[in-house]
Automatic annotation (TrEMBL):
Keyword Nucleotide-binding among record annotations: yes
Protein name: Guanylate kinase
Free-text function comment from the UniProt entry: Essential for recycling GMP and indirectly, cGMP.
Gene: gmk
Catalytic activity, reaction form: GMP + ATP = GDP + ADP
Species: Amphibacillus marinus
SMART domains named among the record's database cross-references: GuKc
InterPro entries with a match to the protein in the record: GK/Ca_channel_bsu (IPR008145), Guanylate_kin-like_dom (IPR008144), Guanylate_kinase (IPR017665), Guanylate_kinase_CS (IPR020590), P-loop_NTPase (IPR027417)
Amino acid sequence: MIKQKGILFVLSGPSGVGKGTVRKALFEKDTALQYSISMTTRPIRPGEQEGVDYFYRSKDTFEAMIGDNQLLEHAEYVGNYYGTPRDYVEKTLDEGKDVFLEIEVQGALQVKANFPEGVFIFLSPPSLEELKNRIINRGTETEALVMNRLKAAKDEIELMDAYDYVVVNDKVDHAVEKVQAIVKSEHCKRERVASAYKKLLEVSQS
Ligand SMILES: Nc1nc2c(ncn2[C@@H]2O[C@H](COP(=O)(O)OP(=O)(O)O)[C@@H](O)[C@H]2O)c(=O)[nH]1
Ligand SMILES: Nc1ncnc2c1ncn2[C@@H]1O[C@H](COP(=O)(O)OP(=O)(O)O)[C@@H](O)[C@H]1O
């Protein structure tokens, strides 16, 4: 019997909406999802670790990887590059394990164009006012960068339609539960399709 490939889940949405927070809370629960660690040219922040939060690389190294087609997608976001190493994703899906990406909107749309069978989840803020508060409270950005990120967020929210699911991040626990429900439902859907396919083959062979 052919081994089934894993499912690619993509969590995306504007900066500051809580993607990182929701993803970390999701991975603290018992989950079989495999997180794909991204590569970035942005400086490491206090408390972050190489190979845990990101692979931190120079602009030259990043551009060489783009040239070698080693990234599944990449985007320039507020002055820095971010990208998903292709090898890890392909190898893990081939092993039958689900992969989870947490990326910004331009990158998610590139993945969708190349990998339409993925499951695309848009994490939405309860309001733009709350999004602004979250970015300011996080305290990682200067005032000019906060405004940049908010401007980007308004454009990104307009792209919500391209996603399979929208999850509002009102409370972290609620958002995590909704993402878990999506993962479960996608597995059920796949099992139903696989079992219907198996039955059809049995009928045609009898
Ligand atoms: N396209 C793309 N975006 C990414 C990737 N990794 C992280 N991002 C996104 O890049 C944006 C900026 O990330 P970061 O600098 O860590 O800031 P923060 O998420 O706002 O704390 C966020 O929206 C991330 O989700 C990636 O591999 N590809
Ligand atoms: N549901 C929520 N309610 C209140 N604050 C939140 C919620 N989710 C995330 N936050 C806070 O918002 C800020 C941005 O979250 P973060 O996970 O860094 O966003 P992103 O990864 O989308 O840029 C952080 O300070 C985080 O603690």
